[in-house]
Amino acid sequence: MNLAPSVTAAAVIIWYGLSGLAQCSRDFDDQLVEECILPPYIRNQYYSRENGLNTLTVVAASSFERKTVVSIASAIVDTSAMEDTTTSEVCMKMTCNRPSKATRKCQILAENGQTVYDSDMYRLLIKDTTKNCFRCRELAIRTINVLEFRQTECYSADVVESLPLLCRTLRDRLIRYAVPWVTLFSVNPTPVSCRSSIEGVWKFQYHLEQFSGHHCKHPKNNLTSCPDPGNRYSTENRFYISYGACSELSWRKEDPGIVPFRDSSMTFTCLGDWYVGKDHYFAAANLGENRPEEKYRCFIENRDDDQYLGQSLTATCANLKTPRRSPVIIRLERVKPVVINATCYLPKNFTGKWINTAHAAVDSKVEMNATHLIDIRKPDQGVAVLTTYVCQEQKKNRFMMARVGVGGCQVFYVCWHFLPRHHNIIRYRVGIAYAQKDFRLVCSWTSFLQQREWKFDLLIASNPFPVECPIGGKFIFAQAGDIPLQTRVRGGVTKSPRDQVECKEYETDFSVCPQQWYKQYTTKQILIDLDKCMTLDWQAKPIGEYDEPDYILHCIGYWRENARSFW
Prior knowledge:
Elements: E1 34-35, E2 45-50, E3 53-59, E4 63-69, E5 85-96, E6 107-109, E7 115-117, E8 121-128, E9 133-141, E10 146-151, H1 163-166, H2 169-172, E11 182-186, E12 200-208, E13 216-225, E14 238-243, E15 264-276, E16 279-286, H3 292-295, E17 296-302, E18 305-311, E19 328-334, E20 352-356, E21 362-368, E22 372-379, E23 385-395, E24 398-405, E25 412-418, E26 425-430, H4 439-442, E27 457-461, E28 473-475, E29 506-512, H5 516-519, E30 525-533, E31 551-554, E32 559-561, E33 564-566
Antiparallel strand pairs: 1-5, 2-3, 2-11, 3-4, 4-5, 5-8, 6-7, 8-9, 9-10, 10-11, 12-13, 12-19, 13-14, 14-15, 15-16, 16-17, 17-18, 18-19, 20-21, 20-27, 21-22, 22-23, 23-24, 24-25, 25-26, 26-27, 28-29, 29-30, 30-31, 32-33
């Protein structure tokens, strides 16, 4: 009997899943089905909570061994009379969501000869050797310590005609009733930095989703995730949560599964984080808990709403829908842990509001007074990030500033190198951050990480005043680039009809002239017209009397840098 399935090339397969960690939108488009060889970095032992039972899964190169463990000495419920069950599975075929463009296979051969796996979602053909049946399993690699999978029922057959045919139930069901994800946590996790998961200091109030009327705001409620570079024992991969018990929830204390509602402090180690759309998930393990079902927890936050944090009450991420639709809903309030006093002054003409051009992908603004600089960055998606810099020491144009983020942890010291303000422009550059308060170290020239040519970023006044342009005359020009200027009518077309004047010659026009365009513009403005009529009448006057420039630019500053002129 031939047990090896005859698998055809996969057609376009799109699957949905809103249960668990929400839907996965990557598709398996027109890639080859190949022999199953799973990535080496996920071959490990994992724990999961399935159907109320503890399950251990050993992932090998082409096989799975799943053991349902019921006889646990530290379990909440007495299970000594029950027996463990073991299932052996063989992975026979696989497809992935990001195959090689050249071979369309999941394994990519790098230049150094090593095999690289670039995909984070796999569709596997699994044979259950214990029951002699086949199933389709989708495996998602969330982090190096966390996997998720969902699978079909096991079908008894001697030959599977097609992997897409076997996986059809994972994509044909409605979104609301999709097959839920099962979360696998590494039993021996690799330490992961918490910086990308959560960083800062917060106080909070929390409540259970099923008891939404009870909100616990207690002075002991605190969440701290602060790496400490000066600590010989690394705290980079840990964060701490302290819960205070509220009186209106005291009647739940006898429930051993509701641990957060007692006065307790927990130390978590981060297992990694990942994104699904705008939702940011991260997993953690409680270092003070030996019971596996109480050790692992999942958290969720949203990049557009950093006020709420959702937490699971069990070892799964499947019940986290949004931060406000989670088993435990935490409302965060940022805490500024330290207050830094200023010990020097910024130039007086720097005071005001500025537009920062250093961050093209975000809306960045700067506000300055005599001692403080506040950098406000608003990305296209997400909430604004506010960072405060406090002047500590000055030497000529270099200022050592203490950097304090709202909800930040340690204070870092950064050197700002300012050039004197010219018109509406301040040129500056920023060095790298140091934990040590030492001007000679922080403001050394090597801290700016630049070679022979120094590169300065710009601060432009929010309400600039016009200045005389550094160029004068009339020019024709040609355009090059991806986004050329387009002809337009500023303010829209006039209500009165224009005279039908036939223009025989058009030219581009770039002009900076006194009393130009009927004396209504000055040499503080640059006029750009992409199709100016150059035809004259019998009196040598332009016949295009209704011509208006397409663009009017006001000069607000100019300077020289690296033997080049900018304005």
